[in-house]
Write a structure and sequence with these properties.
The protein is 33% helix and 20% strand. By secondary structure, it is an alpha/beta fold. It has a single domain (4-96, 163-257), classed as Metallo-dependent phosphatases (Purple Acid Phosphatase, chain A, domain 2). Strand 8 (222-223) and strand 9 (227-229) form a beta hairpin. The relative contact order is 0.21.
Amino acid sequence: MALITLRHERHAAPTGARAGDRPLYAIGDVHGCYDHLHALLAWVARDAAERSPGTAPVLVLLGDYVDRGPESAKVLAALTWLARSSAITARLLEGNHEAMFRLFMERPAANGQWLRYGGSETLRSYGVAPPEEEPDAAALTALRDRLFDAMPVAQYRLLERLEPMVRVGDYTFVHAGVRPGVSLRAQQRDDLLWIRDDFLDHPHPAETIVVHGHTWASDRPVLLPHRIGLDTGAYETGVLSALRIDRNGLEIVQAVAAA
């Protein structure tokens, strides 16, 4: 297991924003960085027990659990356990990488491009060797079949149950963002998974504060009055970010891999 340290930052909460009655946490894009996720889950458990003993916290994970990083299989195993736990209310969002993963599993011959966007690393995490050359339709189907043999059914079922959006009080959690000018109830799945500039560049894209992942530029989260971006490129920067929201403000906690 990699040596992971935690760093903490306190910030003021957006003016007037409410976050419900239970401890509320979020974790950004994991991308196969299991040791980072393990460290943050342990912190959430300790922090919630100290601050609100006897109350199950709400934890929202923002999607993109797989691809790019080395241990997607272990990440999905951890999330499968987390979804069954009675000690925490885990809300697991779908990311665009889970969507690509499922498309490959359903129609491998038409979705081989997944391998170029981190799918090869996911295959390796299950002990399946990715192709050395561009695979044809038959090779892609055979590859999918080997992955099905290696992947526990519970993990595949988890991918089928991921949520598109979670709202808690004055905060809305999505993977990529929302379409400005469209009510939260009318948002389209493709926008929730893939949108970038139209959302990122808008000064007030939704009726709530939006907490999202999907887009990163550095190992620092983005905190603005109308949105909070938690993706910090863990697979490349070595930093996975989490957020606690309470009536006293915001706390950013980052799991950082030792240099």
